[in-house]
Specification:
Growth Hormone, Chain: A, single chain, two-stranded antiparallel ribbon, mainly alpha, globular, 2 domains
């Protein structure tokens, strides 16, 4: 069994456990509590869960990357802890303790995504297979995650939320067993050198990271905005379930067609198109309003985020060839996951009305498009002019253009003596002599 196959099986089981957890919460206390109380709880646990992540990730990440099997160990620990969390959630399904358990699971899910992204480069034979590998993992998570929903929904209807959560715990236990078969790869054997730091700060890579950060933030903002807004309707849980389903299907579609789109356009164009589609979707659907517009926007932001992710990964491969791919993806993925968390916090904190929330998504995308365009027009201060020593000199006797002249510079024939015959001859004088002598000397 190949390294990629082992990672794909682990990823499928982890995504299946996530899907089972989401389905099991449909009829739980998590969605039945009063909206005002729910907002308070969500704000509290988002802050508690992600604030340490801001400080711990930059410190622990490099140490894990240089440890043999460090990321594999992280995935195993995440799987084990999630088994325990889902079993506790099944016990406290109707209590306030469900909130910290759910958000602890969300933090661990983001931690797993970062670790998985850093391991993908070590599972392929060369960098050209990296984009295809990420696309396949996206398809695997969408397809098998969708299949895992069916048993979870049946258990929810027949035995209740607790049974569905136990089913999810079994999937995470399987993910732990599969993760034990992953190869103990070293993501980054040595610290960042000067060349790698320079590659990761290239203008195209930084602009791509800005675009991808906003695309991922739109996903987090839309998810939590719809989670509270749609619940104000009579069939709120059904509407939110439809939004989650539409988001999953859109992500699956984006992962499926992204390689074809990349063959048709450049990576920067993919990211720009993703931002423009988000902007048009947010502005247009805000004008339409209603739950259907919110569900449609959820599908749009997840679709373009899948496209943008593949475009950004291609930029990393193209413009950072000297960088450690595993470390680079882990670094950027940490930033993207944090943007998701910050946007989710803002969605809960500002309590925007339904259409206003959709409008904010569009405005954020429009502002990012303008910012990226302005940054692209600025001259790059880090770009050095080619040294004069490296400029190719024209062959001897060829025409050279002088600054301020429209035509080629020609040497006037002068009288000189042939050293062999001492007879005066006519012809062009050597360049070095003409350059060194002033007209008065000649």
């Amino acid at each position: 069994m190949s390294k990629f196959t082992r990672l794909a099986i682990t990823h499928a089981l982890m995504m299946g456990g996530d899907a089972a957890m989401v389905v099991s919460l449909a009829d739980s206390f998590f969605f039945s509590v009063d909206l005002d109380a729910a907002r308070t709880q969500v704000l509290l646990f988002l802050a508690i869960s992600f604030a340490p992540f801001l400080f711990v990730a930059p410190l622990i990440g490099p140490m894990i990357d240089r440890a043999p099997g460090g990321r594999r160990l992280v995935i195993q620990l995440v799987a084990v802890v999630r088994v325990l969390l889902l079993l506790l959630m099944a016990r406290y399904i109707d209590g306030i303790a469900l909130f910290p358990l759910v958000f602890a699971s969300l933090v661990l899910q983001k931690t797993y995504v970062i670790s998985k992204s850093s391991l993908v480069p070590s599972t392929v034979r060369n960098e050209t297979e990296l984009v295809e590998a990420n696309s396949k993992l996206g398809l695997v998570s969408g397809l098998l995650g969708g299949l895992a929903v069916v048993p979870a929904a049946l258990l929810l209807k027949t035995l209740g939320s607790g049974a569905a959560l136990v089913y999810g715990a079994i999937l995470f236990a399987g993910a732990f067993a599969s993760a034990r078969q992953l190869a103990p790869e070293v993501v980054a054997a040595k610290p960042v050198d000067e060349q790698e730091a320079e590659d990761l700060h290239s203008p195209s890579l930084q602009l791509g990271a800005i675009a991808m950060t906003v695309l991922r933030a739109n996903v987090g903002f839309t998810f939590f905005h719809l989670a509270f807004w749609l619940r104000t309707f009579d069939n709120g849980n059904v509407l939110f379930g439809a939004a989650v389903g539409a988001s999953g299907l859109a992500t699956l579609t984006g992962n499926a067609i992204a390689p074809r789109v990349r063959r048709m356009m450049r990576e920067e164009t993919m990211l720009a198109a993703a931002l423009i589609i988000s902007a048009l979707g947010g502005l247009g659907l805000a004008a339409i309003g209603g739950p259907a517009a919110g569900i449609a926007l959820a599908a749009i932001v997840n679709f373009v985020a899948a496209l943008g992710r593949l475009g950004f990964e291609s930029i990393v491969q193209r413009d950072a060839p000297e960088a450690n791919q595993g470390r680079a993806f882990a670094t950027f993925e940490t930033r993207f996951q944090l943007s998701w968390a910050v946007a989710a916090f803002l969605a809960v904190a500002i309590q925007a009305p339904g259409a206003i929330g959709l409008l904010l998504v569009g405005i954020g995308a429009v502002g990012t498009v303008i910012h990226v365009q302005m940054r692209q027009k600025r001259p790059d201060p880090t770009r050095r002019r080619p040294s004069k020593r490296r400029r190719r000199r024209p062959p001897k006797g060829s025409a050279r253009r002088s600054k301020g002249r429209k035509g080629p510079r020609r040497n006037k024939p002068v009288t000189r003596r042939d050293p062999g015959t001492r007879e005066p001859t006519r012809g062009p004088a050597p360049r070095s002599r003409l350059a060194s002598e002033s007209p008065r000397d000649r």
